[in-house]
Amino acid sequence: QVQLVQSGGGLVQPGGSLKLSCAGAGLLLRDYRMGWYRQAPGNEREFVGGIRHSSDSGLYSDSVRGRFTISMDNAKNTVYLQMTNLKPEDTAVYFCTAAGSRGDYWGQGTQVTVSS
To answer: Is the dihedral of CA 19, 11, 50, 3 positive or negative?
Structure first.
């Protein structure tokens, strides 16, 4: 019973903020490299950002750097994607991932829509 459970998606206006959550069930996220991806309609899935551990400053794509921040709460076994200054082009289904030496796990995805 290993899974990543996502929450926090929704509709937000341009310039607004939203925080996504990714909770681990049956696995300790501290043992994995955690990442976020997104996929917009008609587009391929793209890398958003990732961290190697809870104290890592992270690696981000050019399109979100300075606006998005990934963090991990080991006590809650949850990783977050804090999104600020959202733009319409951020609209997509967002996925969290846990990457380990023997394979990867993916969350179910959550819709983020940025629109007036």
So the answer is: positive
